[in-house]
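We were asked to recover a plausible sequence for a given structure. The inputs and outputs are reproduced exactly as logged, with field labels preserved.

PROBLEM: sequence recovery
POSITIONS: 159
GIVEN STRUCTURE:
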């Protein structure tokens, strides 16, 4: 009988650990209804590499999540909705752009705060946007450049 009681206690311990892990995972992923949020919107020319659920960061700290992405049929821009963490207020002239974690890292949305006194209210639009920069396009410009040293200001006597 004691052997059976030990098995029941071991099973209960395993279930308790599994339940704790599930609660932790739900909270970390935002499914647990964690911090309160408010919406902001932004339109990007290109959001290549970004999908719904992407991090929104300010000074490298996650302050929100990209909730919704839609193509605007009139402007052909990607209209997005961002869930910002309550308590993080942004100046009205803030900028938002698509950034990458290093050369081969993943993409995320970065906010650059402005200096205006007025703050963005829930539902406001961040108008200063910069879309994703295609690494292939940059490499093609670099490779396709003339490579002539006389094109630089230093070669013209500027250095």
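RECOVERED SEQUENCE:
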């Amino acid at each position: 009988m004691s052997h059976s009681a030990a098995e029941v206690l071991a099973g209960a311990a395993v279930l308790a650990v599994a339940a704790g892990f599930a609660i932790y995972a739900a909270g970390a992923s935002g499914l647990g209804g964690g911090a309160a949020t408010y919406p902001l919107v932004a339109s990007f020319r290109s959001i290549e590499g970004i999908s719904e659920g992407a991090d929104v960061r300010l000074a490298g700290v996650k302050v929100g999540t990209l909730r919704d992405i839609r193509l605007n049929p009139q402007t052909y821009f990607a209209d997005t909705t961002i869930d910002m963490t309550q308590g993080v207020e942004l100046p009205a002239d803030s900028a938002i752009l698509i950034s990458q974690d290093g050369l081969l890292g993943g993409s995320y949305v970065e906010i650059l705060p402005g200096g205006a006194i007025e703050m963005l209210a829930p539902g406001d639009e961040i108008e200063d946007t910069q879309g994703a920069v295609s690494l292939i396009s940059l490499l093609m410009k670099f490779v396709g450049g003339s490579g002539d040293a006389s094109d630089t200001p230093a070669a013209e006597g500027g250095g």
